[in-house]
Please model this.
Amino acid sequence: MKAVATRKQTGPRNAKSKRPPVRFELAGVTAGTVTLAGTFNGWDVNATPLKEQFPGHWVVELPLAPGVYEYLLVVDGAWRMDPQAVETAPNPFGGLNAVRRLA
Model:
């Protein structure tokens, strides 16, 4: 997963621009379910499931606006840090959240 993603707006100012989705991936994990919970979905563990592309490789793409988002992965009900996150922020439970910055 990339911690920083940039997007360039093209076309007329009044035209609706299509933003490319932001990709979240988790590789090398055998699990029954993997979901994504964060500030973009109210930390709802059921709102954003990842799909297993092939054994052990989980993916989801989200249409996120520019901003700073904190998140964690939920693997078979257990909260986990994104192993590819390059930025973190402390959470109120004494742990860390992954941070994704989008420009």
About this structure: Residues 22-102 form a domain with the Immunoglobulin-like fold (CATH 2.60.40.10). The radius of gyration is 15 Å.
